[in-house]
Amino acid sequence: MLFGYFYWDPTYILVLAGVVISLLASWGVKSTFAKYSKVGNSYGLTARDVAERILHNAGIYDVAIEQVGGDLTDHYSPNEKVLRLSSSVCNSTSVAAIGVAAHECGHAIQHANGYAPIKVRNAIVPVVNIGQQLSIPLIMLGLILSMTGLVNIGIFLFSFVLIFQVVTLPVEFNASNRALRILDERNFLVGDELKGAKAVLTAAAMTYVAAVISSALQLLRLVLLSKRRDD
Question: Are strands 82-86 and 75-77 parallel, antiparallel or unpaired?
């Protein structure tokens, strides 16, 4: 009965819709990156070269650049002040790789300039971590024991996951806008090369939009399940 309730309830279609949207977004960024990975830049610069120049031009000299394994595992760690570029990006001369590297530099510049949304996002991380770990167990326990209060606490905690993802949107879009503006102004990429980098970063941004939609659908499902128990 419990198995059927959680896995065959009609509201589960909301979760499936979120999964489909996330998969489409993931496919979009991978296919777009693969397409523009075949297009090199006019100057033969590697993504690492461009990242170093962007950081130095922004007056940032205390951020290290490291290569990490994996595919599209690129990220900037503000606590460590390390910009990590994946194996498929670091030494590549493709416009796709340069776009990704410039995006991560955008995060480093945000951090250096005290960009407000990134401060808000970092501030709520502890609560978000608690929400991710405890929300679903609390909701399930509350449904099993018919304890509405416990369910509501779980839903409240899960809402912070959605809030975090919503706050992440302006952070990611701003980083991409910074990256494209710098690539254009500094002539790291020209003409169709810049369009290719923009296509890659736009596809990547859609994965964050998909995450928001998926979490919103999940939250809606949890609220519907809670109300059904109340009725």
Answer: antiparallel
**Separation CA 228–CA 231 (nearest Å):** 5
Distance CA 13, CA 171 (A): 30
Distance set, CA 215 to CA 142, 195, 210 (Å): 20, 31, 9
Q: Name residue 32's amino acid.
A: T
Is 104 a catalytic site residue? yes
- Point out the catalytic residue in the list 52, 66, 80, 104: 104
Residue 30 burial by CB count (10 A; 0-12/13-18/19+): exposed, middle or buried?
Answer: middle
Give the tens place of pLDDT for each residue, 125-166.
Answer: 888 998 889 988 888 888 788 788 888 899 999 999 999 999
Determine how many CB atoms are found less than 10 A away from the CB of residue 160. Answer: 19
- Can you say whether residue 81 is alpha, beta or left, with left for phi > 0 and alpha for psi between -120 and 50 degrees? left
The per-residue pLDDT for range 160-208, each reduced to its tens digit, is 999 999 999 999 999 999 999 999 999 999 999 999 999 999 999 999 9
Using CA atoms, how far apart are residues 63 and 212, in angstroms rounded to an integer?
A: 30
Beta strands in the chain (DSSP E): 64-68, 75-77, 82-86
CA dihedral 70, 73, 78, 83 (to 10 degrees): 70
Q: What does the DSSP assignment read for 114-137?
A: T-HHHHHHHHTHHHHHHHHHHHHH
Cβ atoms 120, 108 nearer than 8 A: no
Q: What global pTM score does this model have?
A: 0.88
Instruction: Using DSSP, state whether 20 is helix, strand or coil.
Output: helix
